[in-house]
Design a protein that fits this description.
- It is built from 16 helices and 21 strands.
- It has about 575 residues and is of the alpha/beta class.
- The strands form five sheets. Strands 1, 2, 3, 4, 5, 6, 17 and 18 form an eight-stranded mixed sheet that branches.
- The two termini are about 45 Å apart.
- A hairpin with a 4-residue loop joins strand 5 and strand 6.
Length: about 575
Amino acid sequence: MPDAQANRVKTGTEPASHFDAVIVGAGFSGLYMLHRLRRLGLSVRVYEAGGDLGGTWYWNRYPGARCDIDSMNYSYSFSHELEQEWKWTERYATQPEILRYLDHVADRFELRQDIQFETRVTATVFDEATNRWAVQTDGGGHVSARFVIMATGCLSATKVPDFKGLDTFQGTRLHTSRWPREGVDFTGQRVGVIGTGSSGIQVIPIIAEQASHLYVFQRTPSFSVPARNAPLDPAYVSQMKETYAEYRRKARETRAGVIMEVNPKSALEVSPEERERAYQARWEVGGTSFLATFSDVMANRDANETAAEFVRSRIRATVRDPAVAEALCPREYPLGTKRICVDTHYYETFNRDNVTLVDVKASPIEELTPTGLRTRSAEYALDRIVFATGFDAFTGALFNIDIRGRANASLKRKWADGPRSYLGLSIAGFPNLFTITGPGSPSVFGNAIVSIEQHVEWISDCITYLREHRLECIEATAQAEDEWVSHVKEVAGRTLYPLANSWYIGANIPGKPRVLLPYAGGVGAYRKKCEAIAAQGYEGFTLTRAGEAFSTPPPLPSARIPSQR
């Protein structure tokens, strides 16, 4: 066994504080995890890099930022009182409204007292002599904890492109995920937006209304469907609140964590006229349920192409310039294999006289200059450049922390060829370390809040089990991890997702292994797997009690946390 001192984070002194659990991140995941563990009577410290809570919703405060899940669903379900008292105003909540909601949650459940803001965890190392984690922060602080829970989020590590001349640009550089709190006025400015994923599609129409001229630098066009956003109908809100409990129960059993009408028919078994009517009806409703217009849109390439061509026909009908319309039509990947976007007047924006679409696949960006940006074929004078270039999804935030498990093994090194986990929750060789919505779990393939709650509740129930059985450690076995990784890969192969160079497979980060990062088997099926594993005494895990290791100890009566639903 390695020497305990050698396995600690090097700070020159012993850990100053001891906690039962350390949580990294104070977004939706971290706040609910804190609430659950405090109800268990555990001592908990949350570290949050931001100046306040919110996680992704703290940092992504660019104009137009809003969720793409209906706000009545994009919220916690653990408290009946919270569900009833909070009032959402729009179908798709804006970033400020979501942040107000999280502030309300933190105040209502008195969570702030255990959160340390403006503190970034830089390292965490497992001490095999004490079965505790040593945790170090950027300010030199250090604590120890029995459990470490990574609530770092799937989309929190910003991807900043490494363009030549990046630091020579004399104008203002902005990134959608690090937007100034005071906001930005683009009036009279020449602006370039680089990137046309979800963030770009949300911010572009708003900047276009202010800028003297907007240049949109597009490498790969995205499929986007209209949001049809509107104020919430009071009658709808009342009906939802009356039936919330049953609605939430059913949502947790669905594929995507939301209830939507899924057409059981194949897109290929109906007439072209029926297909057109079905797609048009979903288009008018708006939102991501467009993908459920037919049962095989995400499984059959030919069926998918009928939906993709319908979207392209809508783009052509909206954008007046035929050449611009064609440039905005995705053709290189199936619909939905890159995250489908939800927009408000995105395509209409390209009918404005002050908006120019620049195809940087045909003419790549060569460098930033002191006065703007140069592509292979032209130079653009710009006052401000907005990078809407996305994230190093899933693994980026974890790799920003030096995480070391047994024998000082590095997580980054273990995952050099792609992430390996058991259920997206636990990692072999890293005892008592949990990842909320980590790689290998459904996470972004649906309503993230449903997946977050399921993980938080599974982890807190697991910790309860360990305490009841007087166990010190739980750790995924290498065999269970291997089998889960194989299962995730097998399920991915039944879908169209691997056909796109998306952030789902890490293709947006140079050198990142191409692996489908989320689990494509569905939220409901995944939940059943997790429940079965727990019911069988945590099958696939090694459980340790004071030096003895074994699997699946005999079950004892278990007093789980009573639900507030």
